[in-house]
GNAT family acetyltransferase
Amino acid sequence: MERLRDQEIVVRSIKETDLKTLWTLIYKEENPEWKLWDAPYYEHHSKSYKEFLSEKNSWIGNNQKKVVEINNRIVGTVSYYWEHQPSKWLEMGITIYKQLDREKGYGTRILKLWIQYLFDTLDLVRIGYTTWSGNYRMIHIGEKLGMTMEGRLRKVRYWDGVYYDSIRMGILREEWEELNK
């Protein structure tokens, strides 16, 4: 994969030299701050660096996971997975790990690069993601990118004593192309 670039933002393949930084951001702490936004209703467990390294082949060269840099500093990851590959149903995601890198418009710009890359390289008619109603940032990003709220399952995500909705956002290739002429 070539590097995807938008000014100071770069999305690129994960290299072995990135692993220590990724481990520090994702698995070093038992309760990292980013997890408050990224599906906090699912448990997160820290791992030792040695444990993480035993999984390095699932990170390095994986076309479904990429690292995100801002000004040459790793700040997050983007990914995709097949909900159902025979029907080309793909879901994507993004995580920006540090609070200081959020609410600056980076998420929208990163996902714009990622969606364009996915449409350019994969035979898809739709790209989507699932979030929860407590993650107003992801809902707002989807709206800014022209995505449609395709589904809302009410009160199915229970976290910290409160029920939240599960939100499905998506965009069709023809909608994306029309918006990005």
